[in-house]
Amino acid sequence: MGLDGQEWTTFEDLRSRCEIGIVIQERGLTSFHIEPPFGIGQRAFLLQTAEGNILWDCLSMFDAAVAEHIRRRGGLQYICISHPHYYTAMSEWSREFGNVPIYLHRDDAEWVKCSSPNIEFWSGDSKRLLAGVRAIRCGGHFPGSSVLHWPTGAEGKGVLLSSDTIQVAPDRSHVGFMWSYPNWVPLGSREAKRVVAALEPYAFDRIYGAFPKLTIASGGKQVVAKSLKRHLHAISE
């Protein structure tokens, strides 16, 4: 929503004036983003595993090229979304790929404004999906805000798809912890610590953030730890 208020469009209108950028990030992981940027400009990810494929997060549209890209790699088994800002066209994506389940955390159920029989809510601190891939509830940005852990990504060192539950900074050597991004409201110390504590049991080296090119190529877990210290220092001043 811009400063002039909400504006409405249609799937067909978006397809007529936008296309989707497809980027192979590493073996088994593809990102999608709308060009020119639409909404907040986030990216979604296709994660391929030996047990099937997951769409992590969602865009406001898809086109024939994206549908073909996904189908050539085996289609989708699940859609899993980090938090309500990316619910967007999740039902349309699900129907396109055979009404696959859409996993959302139950703590964010009140923000589902367009119900679908394909939505399945999960509860608790984590949910195993396929081949050891796990959604992890961190909270903070929303009560159910989650990240996706891919243990065999980054050449076996582990990958975190962080959405903006944990925001990769433009310098790509720090992350941020925010409650409201458009209104610049940071998380308090207790919530920020809880976000990082939720990740402690998991090994990861690379972090793919919410937006194109915001990727921490290596040292991701150490970056999260040092960024928490910086965050706590800044909000205590």
Summarize the structure.
This protein is of the alpha+beta class. The chain is built from six helices and 17 strands. Helices cover 23% and strands 30% of the residues.
How would you describe this structure to a colleague?
This protein has 237 residues and is an alpha+beta fold. The strands form four sheets. It has a seven-stranded mixed beta sheet. Strands 8-9-10-11-16-17 form a six-stranded mixed beta sheet, with helices on one face. Helix 5 runs antiparallel to helix 6. The longest helix is centred in the last third of the chain and has 17 residues. 39% of the residues are buried.
Range of strand content: 25-35%
What is the number of E strands?
Answer: 17
Give the count of helical stretches.
Answer: 6
Give the SSE order as H and E letters.
HEEEEHEHEEEEEHEEEEEHEEH
- Whole-number mean pLDDT: 95
Shape: globular
| Gap from first CA to last CA | 32 Å
Point out poorly predicted stretches.
none
Largest β-sheet summary: 7 strands, mixed
Radius of gyration: 17 Å
The strand line-up of the biggest sheet is: 1-2-3-4-5-6-7
